[in-house]
Amino acid sequence: MKKRDELNSEAPEAEQSGFSRRRFMGAAALAGVAGATGIGTSVMSRESFAAAAKEAQNKIHVAPGELDEYYGFWSGGQSGEVRVLGVPSMRELMRIPVFNLDGATGWGMTNESKDVLGHDNKLLNGDSHHPHISMTDGRYDGKYLFINDKANSRVARIRLDIMKCDKITTIPNVQAIHGLRLQKVPKTNYVFCNAEYVIPHPNDGSDFSLENSFTMFNAVDAETMEVAWQVIVDGNLDNTDADFTGKYAASTCYNSEKAGDLAGTMRNDRDWAVVFNVKRIEEAVKNGDFKTLGDSKVPVVDGRGKSPFTRYIPVPKNPHGLNTSPDGKYFIANGKLSPTCTVIAIDKLDDLFDDKIELRDAVVAEPELGLGPLHTTFDGRGNAYTTLFIDSQIAKWNIADAIKHYNGEKVNYLRQKLDVHYQPGHNHASLTETRDADGKWLVVLSKFSKDRFLPVGPLHPENDQLIDISGDEMKLVHDGPAYAEPHDCILVRRDQIKTQKVYKRDDPYFASARAQAEKDGITLEADNKVIRDGNKVRVYMTSVAPMYGMTEFKVKQGDEVTVYVTNQDTIEDVTHGFCMVNHGVQMEISPQQTSSVTFVADKPGVHWYYCNWFCHALHMEMRGRMMVEKA
Questions:
Q1: Apex CA 390: angle with CA 39 and CA 423, to 5°?
Q2: For Cu cation Z2, which residues are the binding ones (predicted)?
Q3: Is 135 labeled as ligand-binding?
Q4: What is the rounded average pLDDT of the residues 266-276?
């Protein structure tokens, strides 16, 4: 058995011989597409690739002290968080805990985070896939970011002014919220989200049959975060997107068979993209034409079969991604098991719902691109970029030419193919979900990194690659290792996000702390006092670097202690912390913020607390004592 270093030393020779994995993947993809379409394509040579990459490096350098042009928001996958990067530098700026526990900020420990997660929350995990930013008239408004939790059927909202999660909603009657997109026009009134797996109703153990199971398409009110309505569908649901009129949304289905085994999900030659008529659904709910399921009060309409609310457009089997072109003309369903993407004309959907045309009449193109097309993004210049999972490539193709080819014209719709490393899933171009798609940068989130980075044991990082798409050719300019496992990302101009430098004292994020302080007669900004209410003790203190307003307090063994800290510093970036030693609690308190944490003082004796966020040259001296009297 050869060592890794020996294998690495042979890599250049292996590539020269033509048997490297990278060359094999590229050659296989080229052969597959050429054989399928009978038309040419473009695969860059090693020399032209290197030259193009070197030229594009100048564009991604962000010098010390300079700022990136874009914010990038990445899902954290099974970490349950959202990550914030600067683009094009690809520097990580922040991590926003959402469905996970986070020791740095105290998320999942503080009372303010429990107000969001639920004080009885027992879910310690999350699986966040699809981050999307609220819009007004089809443009990012920078107000909220929404993210799904597939693991526990939840949807979360992040306030982008403070980069904190402020709402989490559990979707009733369903399991595994996967695909998530937002209404674009007139604004984000709804968060559309797909429940992937079918379940019986009632799901009480009385019936386990798949044939009697179903799943639903869900609409969440973006402001209240309450579920507005649900639509029962045939088959299952995967990814989703919405149009630029506010009238239609669409989702892919990869298991029209409702099978429980792998082979069964591939039995049918075609699955479908299901289109939802949002206006008809709203009208039915308004008129009371709905039912409810179980204990839930959410209106449910039936979109199965020949329903007025849905149309099931046949597409090649097991499709995956569903993407809307930024000109608002097309839904594109990505084939996965088929080498094709299906282009659906949105302007034909009115006639489709009025039964003036057949289901497949809404399809205007079905270009063959390569093996394993998963997701498509756009540059705003009429070009689409599709990830080819099996080929480990990005295919750039022209939508107008694909439509011409579908109509019988001999035209080459493929513009270029570029190797990526390796097995790409989602991709995302700058501003691509909006009317403002600018065609500058493309991020490709590859599932495997293999040999791209220093080895770190059996678990490898993912590989997020940055590609310059501003010219005629795609140019790979950056490899970025990512901890498991980003699924998707979104790029927004930096001027579209307006963040607070310090908290406002009336911020709703710590409204519960203000309410309790008012009941206790406490002025959070000034008082350093202990309030006893039976065996519940509330300790109020201020902090100004480098000291707490209270350096010691006394409680009794067994008391439930809640510590409220209000950071009185008004200078940005002077964040304080609070950590009670040997009690498993700590928290972040940013300038002008109030944070609180509750624990049981179950150990008699002296217990120190200290600031665990560096705030001052005398940071080490910022501490105090809790004295616990023996019961």
A1: 125
A2: 129, 178
A3: no
A4: 97
Identify the residue whose tokens are 């080229």: 30
Tens digits of residue pLDDT in 203-254: 999 999 999 999 999 999 999 999 999 999 999 999 999 999 999 999 999 9
In Å, how far from its chain's centre is CA 143?
A: 16
556-595 residue pLDDT tens: 999 999 999 999 999 999 999 999 999 999 999 999 999 9
Helices (H), 173-219: none
**Residue 130 assigned ligand-binding role:** yes
Is 543 exposed, middle or buried (CB count within 10 Å of its CB: 0-12, 13-18, 19+)?
buried
| 428 annotated ligand binder | no
CA distances from 459 to 222, 449, 454, 456, 482 (A): 37, 10, 12, 7, 12
129 is in an annotated binding site: yes
Closest CA to 519 of 564, 480, 474: 564
Is the Cα torsion angle 15, 18, 22, 26 positive or negative in sign? positive
Burial group, residue 330, by CB count within 10 angstroms (0-12, 13-18, 19+): buried
CA dihedral 540, 542, 548, 554 (to 10 degrees): -10
Q: What residues contact residue 153 under an 8 Å CB cut-off, 6+ apart?
A: 170, 171, 174, 175, 176, 177, 195
**Residue 613 counted as an annotated binding residue:** yes
Pick from 502, 435, 443, 382: nearest CA to 68: 443
Would you say 341 is a known binding-site residue? no
Mean pLDDT of the chain: 93
Distance CA 208, CA 192 (A): 28
Q: Report whether 583 belongs to an annotated binding site.
A: no
Task: Determine the Cα–Cα distance for residues 340 and 143; give it in Å rounded to an integer.
Answer: 36
Q: Which of 361, 371, 365 is nearest to 330 (CA)?
A: 365
**Percent helix, strand and coil across the chain, each to the nearest 5:** 15, 40, 45
pLDDT at 328 over 60: yes
Q: Are 176 and 150 in contact (CB under 8 A)?
A: yes
The response to whether 119 counts as a known ligand-binding position is no
Q: Which residues, other chains included, contact 64 with Cβ-Cβ below 8 Å and sequence gap of 6+?
A: none
The CA–CA distances, whole Å, from 503 to 78, 166, 567 equal: 30, 14, 10
Which pLDDT value is given to residue 406?
98
Query: Residue-wise over 601-618: b if at least 16 C-beta within 10 A, else e?
Result: beeeeebebbbbbebbee
Look-up: residue for tokens 């959070």?
524
Note whether 521 and 533 are within 8 A (CB). Answer: no
CB 413 within 8 A of CB 118: no
Residue 132: how many CB atoms within 10 A of its CB?
24
pLDDT tens digits, 515-562: 999 999 999 999 999 999 999 999 999 999 999 999 999 999 999 999
619 is in an annotated binding site: yes
Residue 192 to residues 32, 222, 226, 241, Cα–Cα distance (Å): 36, 10, 12, 8
- Indicate if the pLDDT at residue 19 is higher than 80: no
Query: Is residue 426 annotated as involved in ligand binding?
Result: yes
Strand, coil or helix: 335: coil
- Measuring CA to CA, how many Å separate 379 from each of 11, 242, 409, 506? 35, 18, 24, 41
Cβ atoms of 383 and 397 closer than 8 Å: yes
Question: Token match 């992040």: residue?
Answer: 158
Q: Alpha helix (H) ranges present in 38-89?
A: 46-60
Tens of pLDDT, residue by residue over 403-430, are: 999 999 999 999 999 999 999 999 999 9
